[in-house]
Write a structure and sequence with these properties.
174 residues; mainly alpha; 5 helices; elongated
């Protein structure tokens, strides 16, 4: 059972929602989890509906995302292996050590977030496949689907921002 236990991926992702001092940011939890639930509920309340075709297209989209995110994870791993040489100047070395530690923490958080997005993609493919095959309908199904899209979108934005920082820093050190 341990081989399919995904709690470590979810917990690592949640752990990445901390500030630089290590304080858990409840505001991030509200944005990444609460906002999608509220928008999904509003979507369902106001009669929004996700069609069967949209569920079918979602299966394709999340399948593609899973594959692309795996390749992002490989790229991140390659960037993390790249050594960065310390400056000769002792005064600059302290700043270098701090930047290098920040880089390591950012890479770890980014890996945790990408792993979480891959997990979400796989779970969402399964959920949307079930909705498509079983022809689930109704406001609650559309509300849940909308919340899923919103949560994935917000988490993906965070990953894009963090990846941009990591890759920009990697290019600066060339």
């Amino acid at each position: 059972m341990q081989k399919i236990n995904i709690t470590s991926i979810v917990m690592s992702h949640l752990n990445s929602l901390r500030d630089d001092g290590g304080t858990f940011l409840w505001s991030d939890v509200a944005v990444f989890f609460g906002a999608p639930l509220v928008t999904g509920a509003l979507f369902g309340y106001f009669g929004g509906a996700i069609s069967k075709d949209a569920f079918g297209q979602s299966i394709t989209a999340f399948s593609v995302f899973a594959a692309l995110l795996l390749s992002v994870q490989v790229a991140l791993y390659n960037v993390s292996l790249r050594p960065i040489s310390a400056p000769e100047d002792r005064r600059k070395r302290k700043q270098f050590d701090e930047v290098n530690m920040t880089r390591f923490e950012l890479m770890k958080d980014l890996n945790d977030n990408v792993s979480y997005l891959i997990l979400l993609s796989v779970c969402f493919v399964t959920i949307f496949l079930a909705a498509y095959v079983m022809d689930w309908k109704g406001a609650w199904v559309s509300a849940a689907g909308f919340a899923i899209y919103a949560h994935f979108f917000l988490t993906l934005l965070m990953v894009v921002k963090r990846a941009s920082i990591v890759f920009s820093r990697a290019y600066e050190s060339v």
